[in-house]
């Protein structure tokens, strides 16, 4: 296939999509536009090793510059697309120039949600999405004493763990009555709460933020809905992200809190694909209770969806099969999740939470649908195979430490 593929967004999804299109024979020009002025890099370390000063930017590149050159992928960094003219098949750039496309891919990711409370614009309030945010947060952490982290989701908890590791006092404010309530079963929420409290973090559950308090233009604390005040000279807001779907919406593509794509990563326009955090994927397999649209923000989802979309754009229709997995590192605990868990699943424990190595197997209608592991890499890897092969596993077998699941899986797939 010839012509020009324009990829808007230069991160996990954009990079993978461009390389996939090449690997599947796209022979025309490939141009990748990235608003950030740096080479595509890994985001997960920003709240973990990078924030703690244990990892440097060169180790975080997604691919070396030479790899882009070899694949003849033209990287245009520091360039923002502001509109798509589908009738003329052009992307409009911030400086007014226009770039014609034969095929277009939207991999614009997501942006952090902001709080709308009084004091939200004070100096000393941080969000975390890109390397610039992480640099600003690390610089502030170097002189701060007490951080208030608003939001007890993955990013909030990872930041809390990193700031604690750096020696700050840390308070986490979470509006729900348990941590990660939408993803974790109660046992895992409780274990995570105990982990943070053991490391000295003051976790406030069921606590809402009414205002951020300031003194001479700088943050000095947080006022809770309960009337309590928490002092702090650094505030980190981690209350979720919203898909960057405006370009698509303004161009008349179907969006619904994300650019709606099918299982090939194609939008409602057959010349335009989308992948990664900016998408909402049609749940044609009924992977989630209730079906509808699947919105996943993870490296694996961005990469796999982009792999399928790039191949499809290049003329090899490829399905993005949804078996999501995700990880989070907090202190020395490694969390690994696979599948589509839901709060109503039947949960079976394998291993001993006291030992810090255990897994929770989720069953729905007696079928294994997800596994959450802590410090149990083998369980996680086996769970990925069990779920991928659709291996039948009974709840009592999942909980029986005497059954070697790896051999069970191998035997079942023969
Ligand atoms: C601090 C942090 C920790 C994380 N930890 C984990 C983890 O442990 N495990 C995990 O699986 N996931 C983690 N994630 C999530 C993971 O990083 C994202 O799911 C992943 O980056 C999504 O990739 P993407 O390419 O879809 O979007 P993004 O990485 O968001 O990239 C989108 C890019 O497009 C650019 N862009 C947007 N609009 C335009 C435009 N109009 N023109 C040009 N460029 C544009 C943006 O500037 C950005 O560079 C973490 C994320 C963060 C922020």
UniProtKB/TrEMBL annotation:
Annotated Reductase C-terminal domain residues: 325-407
Domain FAD/NAD(P)-binding: start-end pairs: 4-306
Family matches, as InterPro entries: FAD-oxidoreductase/Apoptosis, FAD/NAD-bd_sf, FAD/NAD-binding_dom, FAD/NAD-linked_Rdtase_dimer_sf, Reductase_C
Highest taxon of source: Bacteria
Keywords: FAD, Flavoprotein, Oxidoreductase
Cofactor(s) of this protein: FAD
Name of this protein: FAD-dependent oxidoreductase
């Amino acid at each position: 296939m010839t012509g020009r593929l324009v990829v808007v967004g230069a991160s996990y999804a954009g990079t993978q999509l461009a390389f996939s299109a090449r690997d599947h024979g796209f022979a025309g020009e490939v141009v990748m536009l990235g608003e950030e002025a740096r080479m595509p890099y890994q985001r997960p370390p920003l709240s973990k090793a990078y924030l703690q000063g244990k990892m440097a930017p060169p180790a975080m590149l997604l691919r070396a510059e030479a790899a882009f050159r070899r694949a003849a992928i033209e990287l245009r960094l520091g360039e923002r697309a502001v509109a798509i003219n589908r009738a003329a098949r052009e992307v409009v750039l911030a400086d007014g120039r226009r770039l014609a496309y034969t095929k277009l891919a939207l991999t614009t990711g997501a942006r952090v949600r902001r709080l709308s409370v009084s004091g939200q614009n004070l100096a000393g309030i941080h969000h975390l999405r890109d390397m610039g945010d992480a640099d600003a947060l690390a610089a502030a952490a170097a002189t701060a004493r007490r951080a208030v982290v608003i939001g007890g989701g993955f990013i909030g908890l990872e930041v809390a763990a990193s700031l604690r590791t750096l020696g700050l006092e840390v308070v986490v404010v979470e509006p729900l009555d348990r941590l990660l309530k939408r993803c974790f079963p109660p046992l895992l929420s409780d274990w995570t709460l105990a982990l943070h409290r053991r490391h000295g973090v003051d976790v406030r559950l069921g606590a809402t933020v009414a205002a951020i308090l300031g003194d001479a233009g700088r943050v000095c604390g947080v006022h809770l809905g309960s009337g309590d005040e928490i002092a702090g000279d650094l505030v980190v807001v981690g209350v979720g992200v919203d898909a960057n779907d405006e370009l698509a919406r303004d161009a008349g593509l179907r969006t619904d809190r994300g650019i709606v794509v099918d299982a090939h990563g194609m939008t409602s326009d057959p010349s335009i694909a989308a992948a990664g955090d900016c998408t909402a994927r049609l749940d044609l397999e009924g992977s989630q209770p209730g079906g509808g649209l699947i919105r996943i923000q993870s490296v694996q989802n961005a990469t796999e969806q982009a792999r399928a979309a790039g191949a499809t754009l290049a003329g090899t229709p490829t399905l993005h099969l949804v078996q999501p997995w995700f990880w989070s590192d907090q202190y020395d605990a490694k969390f690994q999740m696979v599948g589509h868990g839901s709060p109503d699943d039947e949960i079976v424990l394998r291993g001993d939470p006291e030992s810090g190595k255990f897994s929770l197997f989720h069953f729905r209608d007696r079928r294994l649908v997800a596994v959450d592991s802590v410090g149990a890499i083998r369980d996680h890897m086996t769970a990925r195979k069990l779920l991928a092969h659709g291996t039948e596993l009974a709840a009592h077998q999942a909980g029986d430490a005497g059954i070697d699941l790896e051999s069970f899986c191998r035997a079942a797939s023969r």
